[in-house]
Design goal:
TATA-Binding Protein; alpha+beta; two-stranded antiparallel sheet; single chain
Length: about 180
């Protein structure tokens, strides 16, 4: 097994905030210029940069941040613009999107089928292999250049463990090659 650490970068952390009193969707539309669509209201903030979704239950979902602190700042900004205090917001962490690199090219077209800890398929449209990783409970998209994107992950550390695990598996099967 390859024991070297792999640098994992969080690209997006989905965070939901539940205020003590639900946020009024109509107020977000009328006061802040939010857009109503499909039962939710969407408001894009420039500072801090984030996309906020107010669901039908008045909860605040923040997209486009990679740190919980940045998501909290966006939720606080929304509450303040509505003339409300941000005290009492409960934080619920959702899945993360993360990326990493193996540092070697990967023979993605050979990574198909059952790998024990996950099932791999090659997606011709994306030009990558997709592994439904049951061991780490996430999905990995892997490209020939060794770049990988993890979705549906719960924590950076789980992505790092998956990266090391799969690099070891691919190394054992001679599916990683040095870049020229």
């Amino acid at each position: 097994m390859v024991a070297s650490a792999i640098d994992v970068r969080i690209e997006n952390q989905l965070v939901r905030f539940v205020p003590p009193r639900p946020v009024d969707q109509d107020a977000v539309v009328a006061q802040l210029g939010g857009q109503q669509t499909g039962g939710v209201v969407i408001k894009v903030l420039d500072r801090p940069r984030a996309t906020i979704v107010i669901d039908q239950e008045g909860r605040i979902v923040v997209h486009g941040t990679h740190r919980v602190e940045a998501a909290r700042a966006a939720a606080k900004e929304l509450m303040l613009r509505l003339g409300r205090d941000d005290a009492g917001l409960e934080t619920e962490l959702g899945p993360v999107v993360a990326s990493f690199e193996f540092g070697q090219a990967l023979l993605v077209e050979n990574v198909v089928g059952d790998f024990g800890a996950g099932t791999a398929t090659f997606d011709e449209r994306l030009g990558c292999t997709i592994i439904e990783d049951s061991r780490h409970n996430l999905t990995l998209h892997m490209w020939p250049n060794g770049r990988c994107v993890a979705t549906d992950a719960r924590h950076r550390n789980m992505v790092a463990m998956a990266a090391v695990y799969w690099k070891g598996r691919f190394s054992d099967k001679n599916l990683l090659i040095e870049r020229i």
